[in-house]
Design goal:
With 83 residues, this protein is of the alpha+beta class. The protein has one domain. Helices cover 33% and strands 14% of the residues. The chain contains two helices and two strands, in the order H-H-E-E. The protein has a two-stranded antiparallel sheet with strand order 1-2.
Length: 83
């Protein structure tokens, strides 16, 4: 069965579920800051099913080093890297 949602509808749904549903927004400026922060996580870092659960920006596998969590969106999401 084909997907009945368009890409913008899927993005809006993801932004709501993964970001906006977890915050109390205090105005338009706050909403814009949250959406900008989410977009910077969503596009380059977040894994995508259409890319076989890989991120759009290539990152070589790192086997050595300590794993560090980078907080995104106030700790709602994290990006894990080795240092």
């Amino acid at each position: 069965m084909p997907c009945r949602y368009t890409r913008p509808e899927r993005l809006i749904g993801s932004a709501g579920r993964e970001c906006l549903d977890h915050f109390i927004l205090i105005g338009e400026a706050h909403l814009r800051r949250m959406l900008k922060a989410y977009a910077s996580h969503y596009k380059p870092i977040r894994t995508h099913l259409s890319l076989n659960e890989d991120a759009p920006i290539f990152r070589p596998a790192q086997a050595v080093g300590d794993i560090v969590a980078i907080r995104l969106l106030g700790g709602l999401h994290h990006d894990y890297v080795r240092v």
